[in-house]
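Tutorial, part two.
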Amino acid sequence: MAKIHEFAFKLLPHLPCSPDLVPTDYFLFPYLKRMLAGKKFSSNEEVIAEIEAYFEAKEKSYYKNGMEKLEGRYNLCITLEENYIE
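Running the prediction step on this input gives:
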């Protein structure tokens, strides 16, 4: 919530079960999965360190742009009458 206020985003209500409108489903996790693809880890700590380094290396604009894309997805979801749009 702090980041939403920091970037002055307007919080919009949406269906809680819509995967089209969950930033982690369309924005964060696909890129993270590609970065981790094919890598082998010997411990949970190594995985955690890799993921933390990945997110810490991203500029603030990376997260801001991802959240800004939510508006377009929200509008498309409404246009398609809440049908899945992936």
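The longest helix spans residues 60-79. In part three we will examine how such features are distributed along the chain.
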